[in-house]
Structure formats: structure tokens, C-alpha cells
Amino acid sequence: MLIAQNLCKTYRRHAVQVPVLTGLNLEVRTGEFLSIVGASGSGKSTLLHLLGTLDAPDSGSVLLDGKRIDNLPADQRGDLRNRTFGYIFQFYHLLPELTMLDNVLMPAYIRQSLFNWWATRGQWRQRAEDLLKRVGLGHRMTHRPRELSGGEMQRTAIARALLMNPRVLLADEPTGNLDVESGGEIVRLLRDINREEGVTIVMVTHNLDIVAATDRVVRMVGGVITEDTPAPRHVFPQPRLAAV
Ligand code: ADP
Ligand code: MG
């Protein structure tokens, strides 16, 4: 469904060049929950940004359903980012002044005419409320981000990412800022969404425990994929210690 072909990306600042992706190939299959692991600085976020057209490669291409998306005009990439992809980040990126409900509604506010928005806002609001209930936050709709825990903020960010009914969720270290327990809840939620809604998920992590909840794991070293295996099945999502 989503293919990276021979991606190269080098960051340049003054005379310093940092080659990050050096000819990377990856195929994401429809409906799978894929995890990407690799050391800090190995280029995982860079790859995710290129897959989601948040940034462009120096060379190589990104294909969605067989069509190139990395070189589309800006407005078409904007539509893809709004409708086809949903993004989840380590630090949630919620707007502090808005309620959780309004944060979830944000993707629908933008990229619609004001008229359209007013005509359809009741349906959007209903969908946002349903999604907040879906992620277990039906009682938190009118709270603001600072009143919530990290896990609750990330669940809100997941609801926001789902609002436009995307085909692919791109999650960059979604549990990186959470304790083990709330991180586990986030990954189980993503797992359920993947199974029940059929949304394809690409998740970057350097936490090897949580990859066991996914279908397949690829490892990045030196700017390319070096390993591609079914995810191990043993530790997660079962609790690690049996109750005594
Ligand atoms: P990861 O997510 O695996 O930790 P990144 O993709 O964030 O890795 O970064 C890969 C390398 O590229 C790192 O060495 C990082 O410092 C560098 N890098 C990332 N973004 C930029 C940027 N905008 N400008 C310059 N260097 C960058
Ligand atoms: Mg990163």
C-alpha cells in the first residue's frame, strides 16, 4: 500500500552534512501494524516524515497505491496529510487553550470552507465525541490538556488522528514519554484500532517490549532496513508479572 523506494535524505547545515537515509526500501502492507525500531538518531523519525509527506527525500520515492506522493503539489500533499494519514507524536502536540473535544475536532476545522464547517459541525462534533469515548475519555471532553495525564493526552491525540477516518496512522514513539503501564494501554489501543477499524499503522519505537503487540518489525541501521521479521509474541501485551 505504502512503499518507500531507495530513499535518500541528508541534512545539511553550513558545511556539515548528516546522511540519514542511504537508499532505504520498505513496503507497508494494507492492514498491518508495522513497527520500526533502531537506535536513537538512526533516522526513524525522518523516515516517518517522508512516508507521511511531512518532508521530501533528496532522491527516491514514496508510493501510495502505486502512485508517487512525495512529489505532489503542496495542496495535494495537504489533502493527503489531512485525510489519508493520521499522525501521533511522542509529545502529543495538543493545543493547550482548547478543550479535548476541540483538539480532536481540529483536523475538521482546517481545510474546509467556513460554510461547510457550519453546515456539518454537528456531525463532526458527534464523531469527535464518539472517538473520545472510544479511547476511554468520554468523561474528559471539556477538560484542557494540562488537566490530563500523559496517557490521556496521548489517547486524545489518537482520537484526533482518527477523526478524518485515515487509512494509515503514523506514530512516532507514541509511548516514549509514558510510564510502562500507560504505554502498554496506548499500544493495546492502537492494536484494537488496527484490528477493528482495519487502519494500517506504522509505529516507530525504541522500546522493544511494545513491538510484540505488532505484526512485523523492521530495524534501521546505517540509513537502511537491516532486518525484517514477524514480531516476537512472548512478553506483551500480557502483564509481565502474574498476580500473586
Ligand atoms: P531517530 O528518530 O531515529 O532518533 P531522526 O530521524 O530524528 O532519528 O534523526 C536522524 C539524524 O538526523 C540525527 O543525527 C539527527 O540529529 C539528524 N537530524 C534530524 N533532523 C534534522 C534536521 N532538521 N536538521 C539537521 N539534522 C537533523
Ligand atoms: Mg525520532
UniProtKB/TrEMBL annotation:
<dbReference type="GO" id="GO:0005524">
    <property type="term" value="F:ATP binding"/>
</dbReference>
<protein>
    <submittedName>
        <fullName>Lipoprotein-releasing system ATP-binding protein LolD</fullName>
    </submittedName>
</protein>
<keyword id="KW-0547">Nucleotide-binding</keyword>
<dbReference type="InterPro" id="IPR003593">
    <property type="entry name" value="AAA+_ATPase"/>
</dbReference>
<dbReference type="InterPro" id="IPR003439">
    <property type="entry name" value="ABC_transporter-like_ATP-bd"/>
</dbReference>
<dbReference type="GO" id="GO:0005886">
    <property type="term" value="C:plasma membrane"/>
</dbReference>
<dbReference type="InterPro" id="IPR017911">
    <property type="entry name" value="MacB-like_ATP-bd"/>
</dbReference>
<keyword id="KW-0449">Lipoprotein</keyword>
<dbReference type="InterPro" id="IPR015854">
    <property type="entry name" value="ABC_transpr_LolD-like"/>
</dbReference>
<feature type="domain" description="ABC transporter">
    <location>
        <begin position="2"/>
        <end position="244"/>
    </location>
</feature>
<dbReference type="GO" id="GO:0022857">
    <property type="term" value="F:transmembrane transporter activity"/>
</dbReference>
<keyword id="KW-0067">ATP-binding</keyword>
<dbReference type="Pfam" id="PF00005">
    <property type="entry name" value="ABC_tran"/>
</dbReference>
<dbReference type="InterPro" id="IPR027417">
    <property type="entry name" value="P-loop_NTPase"/>
</dbReference>
<dbReference type="GO" id="GO:0098796">
    <property type="term" value="C:membrane protein complex"/>
</dbReference>
<dbReference type="GO" id="GO:0016887">
    <property type="term" value="F:ATP hydrolysis activity"/>
</dbReference>
<comment type="similarity">
    <text>Belongs to the ABC transporter superfamily. Macrolide exporter (TC 3.A.1.122) family.</text>
</comment>
<keyword id="KW-0813">Transport</keyword>
